[in-house]
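Q: Hi! First time doing this. I have a protein sequence and I read that you can turn it into a structure. Is that right? Here it is:
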Amino acid sequence: MNDISDYIQGELNKIPFNLYNLITKYIESNNNTKVAFVGGYLRDLLIRKYHKKSFPEPVDIDLVVEGSSICLAKFIKKNIVNVDLCLIKEFNLYNTVEININDYKIDIASARKEIYSAPGLNPTVTSSTIEEDLKRRDFTINTIAFEVSKMKIYDLYGGISDIKNKKLNLLHSNSISDDPSRLIRCAKYASRLDFNISNNSLKQSQETVRKWPWKSLETYQKMIFPPALGIRIRMEIAEIQKHDNLNNVISIIHQWKVISILNKNIKVDKRFLRGLNWIKKLNGNYMLYLLKDSEDLGTACRRFLVNNSEKKILEDYSNIKKILKNNQKKFIHYSPSTWTKFIENRNLNDETVKLLICDGGPYWRNLFRWLFIYKSIKSKKDGETLKKEGWEPGKEMGKEIKRLRYLEIDKLKRN
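A: Yes, that's right. Below is the predicted 3D structure, encoded as structure tokens:
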């Protein structure tokens, strides 16, 4: 693997802030403590090497140290030069540290071993070695490490071979049951990297989802709402919507027949995918879009830790959808001001309106116009002007301001 080691070392030396040399100095001054580059950065370097695929310059680098992550972080901050900003965030639960250097994020983890007592629960953590640390990862392609002091490649699980073959292999037989959100991440990699999931990994994914609700190893009781799972899935969805093609990811999850990890009532068809594009254009809430047609809304909300305001958005969406469907002839003749009254008298949240727009149907344009035009139109006369004209402050003045506003809104129809 000398050629791979030389290639990776050459690329690591290009990382800004002289980071590679700083780590080398830290190792030398700390009794040859082992520090390794791991994860997505190395994976992408090797994909670039074998498949000539270009990636944006990395802004997120992962390190594992056999020892104290905070000590390494403090050493880097103390010795780094020519930077405008260097902040350290410490996370005691997993002995991890995040360093933000200008626009770069460096995650440093103390090597650890993890044990999961139930799907989606936070693991029990103990200190360990780099080799042990690699066992806790999700896919073989993310288990490759480069240990700095010996310039040694760790490839204990065939990650390099899987990169060459463009294959997604879960690391072990409990990968999905330990953390079911890895399913979402797997689909993300399949979309982003154009890799294919292996048959064994697909089978493990399908069988794990099929066993829902899962049992806790501690209590042997069914866990309908694993405490951390909803948060992890929501975080994965948020990352995907920022950096990847969510339509592709959802389509892949549907193709793998594991869509119930999100919502078994999702029908991935042209209308659904068109709505997914619209929720992006509207800067709407993706998670609410994925949950909006849940058969059991209360269960879906508890499962994904949907707060009360988000739950009301979904409830209002469901109610308004029924009203629109059952009174189609009436709504066809609504004027702009009548649509404004219909929406505003019910105190509908903008997110509710966005969900209704994404459904398409005969009224989406009216809802769209309210969101971006009607709601911002004001009466030509405010309260001060009406007082000068002899109006007394109170309900009647309020009604007059509304009437004048509605007149301005309805002018749009004539124009």
